[in-house]
Please model this.
Amino acid sequence: MKKILGILLMISVLFGGCSSLTTKNKRLVGKEYILIQENSIPNVLIGFDEHNFYGFSGLNNYFGRYEKKGNKIKLEKLGSTLMAGSDKVMKMESEYLEKLDTVQTFKVEDDILIFNLKDGSTLQYKENKKVDKKFARKRKLQNVADGSYAEHG
Model:
């Protein structure tokens, strides 16, 4: 009887430890994150479907595929719409999209997503819990069309 209780105790400790790891490395699927870096374009976001990512980069919507193994992630086949805006915002947007191409690893801590880039820098995002997932893409497209984004001054 003591052996059975000991085995059950070990199993619960092992699986209890695994669940805390799962909480720390939340899945990306079905979530959207807003960029929270200083000196960035406002309302920049990234979201994840099963194998695809999408987002809004200040003027344009962007999209692509991603591969994830453990904490390694590769964002690839990046495409975007081709809206024009001020030179300042277009330059910032271009720099942001170039950084996405250099993402190597990620981690999620609480509601913060951190991408680690090839050059050692990071991109940090906060989970957007207020987004209505069904209408998020439609709203982003409308924001681009009607120009309802704010430019840093």
Notes: The first strand starts at residue 32 and ends at 35.
